[in-house]
Each structure stands twice: as C-alpha cells, then as structure tokens.
Target: MBL fold metallo-hydrolase
Amino acid sequence: MQVMALPPEPWPTGIAEQLEPLVRRVLAPNPSPYTFTGTQTYIVGAEDKVAVIDPGPADEAHIEAILAAVGDAQVTAIMCTHTHRDHSPAAAPLAERTGAPIVGCAPLVIESDLPRSDEAFDPTYAPDRVLEDGEAMTGPGWTLRAVHTPGHTSNHLCFALEESGALFTGDHVMGWSTSVVIPPDGDMGHYMKSLERLQSRGDTVYYSAHGEPITKPQQLVRGMIGHRRQRENQILRLLGERARPIPDFIPEMYKGLDPRLNKAAQMSVEAHLIDLERRGLVARSEHVWKTI
Model:
C-alpha cells in the first residue's frame, strides 16, 4: 500500500476550514491506520441552504462541530459516498437534529466474522433517497451530481460540484493512501474501471474523505492506475517463480510495511488475484494460487 506519514499534531479536529467559496470541511476525531488523521466531512453551499457530505462517525463532538459550522443555514441534504462506519453513522442523528433527508449511496451491509482491515459497514444507514449515476442534488448556487464509482465498495459514489469543478471522492481516491479493495464486496476490476472513468473527466480538484485536497487529480489517477498495474505484474512474476498462498506475497511486495496494515495488504493482493482469475490468468487450489 502507498501511504503518507501522519502530519505533526495538532490536527484541525472539529474546526470548520474554508477550502473554496462553496466548500468547508470539518475533521472528525477518529484517526487510525485506516483513516489517517480522521474522516473529513464537507459542507457545500455559501448561502442559506447547504449539503453535508460524509457526516462521519456517530460521535457527539463531531456532530456538534458540523452543526456549529452550518450555523443558521438549513441542511437540505446529508449525502454519503458509501457506508463504512467512519462515513455514514452520523447521518441518522444529524437528520434528527436538522430534519434533512439522507441521500446518496445505496444501503449495504456485508456480514462477516473475518477480521476486517477497513471500517466495517454501517447497519444503521437508511437513505431517504438513493442517487443513481448522474442524478443531482441542488441548492442556491450549487449542484452536486452523483458519479457511480464501484470498487472500494459496490455502492460507492463520488459527488461532482459542477459550479467549481471539484469532485468529492470519498475513499475511491484519497489524499494520503491508495484505497483498500477488500473482497467479497470490493472488486479490483470495478475499481480500475472507476479510476479510468475519473481519468476521462475534467475535474479540477478532488476532496477526499482522508488527506489533503488533490490539486493535480488527473496526474494522481494516472499514477494510481500505473501502480495497480505494477502490483498485478508483481503478482504474476511471483507466481511465475512458484505457486504460493497469499501471505507469501507480502514480504516481496510490501517491503517495510507497517505491521498493522498487513491484513489490508493481503486483502488487496486477494482482490488482484480474483480479478486475474476472472480474466483467466491465474487459478487457485485451496489457499494456493498459481499461473495458468
């Protein structure tokens, strides 16, 4: 995995930061090896009606920080890119406090007793409206249009702010790390197609749920596609040497990896292997993979 080192503290947790005339962000107090300094909630709108994107964890201090940033404005939409527990659980309590509808991605809960290396799914998420690809929410001076980007999760959406050229990318493209793609719901083939879709767009800046704004988005996406292709080639090369189980790939492919990210790396390799298997390039027998 490609990750950045944490910036020095203090981080701007709970503080509304103005990123551009229509966009503010509020950092949630949930830092971790998988969320960087925390989940970033965005408030879109400069007048009396605003949208909240990725309200984050159901943390009372964070909800209060969002409400303080909103001030006297009316929240007309609470929008979620996907339903991992660091993104959507605050939607329900925020809706209760504001009366705003919850809109955006479809509900999705994957039941599993396996240890997860991302944030598990939010079973409380109940949208009032699911946005289809290309549908939009509007307010005074702003339009947020849904862009379906499956891969990190099957229900993942990005939201394009048409007035400024910004794209809210959730976890699909992040400002600090490559996205984790975890089977069975995460799909590497879909993820690559979604990256290619973003590369074909003309967005000028990405605001992700974790990390700083991405000011050269096309360059970054091109590099991410190249990075994933490099990982795919590494897997094929290693399998060309001998058949092996997934844990055997990690020391060769992820030198110097934080041990806390080992499971995430294994799941990323598994996602690549499943995609290669679908394409007829590799096969498995029990827990051992080989080339065809």
About this structure: The radius of gyration is 19 Å. Residues 31 and 37 are 4 Å apart (CA to CA). The first strand starts at residue 17 and ends at 20.
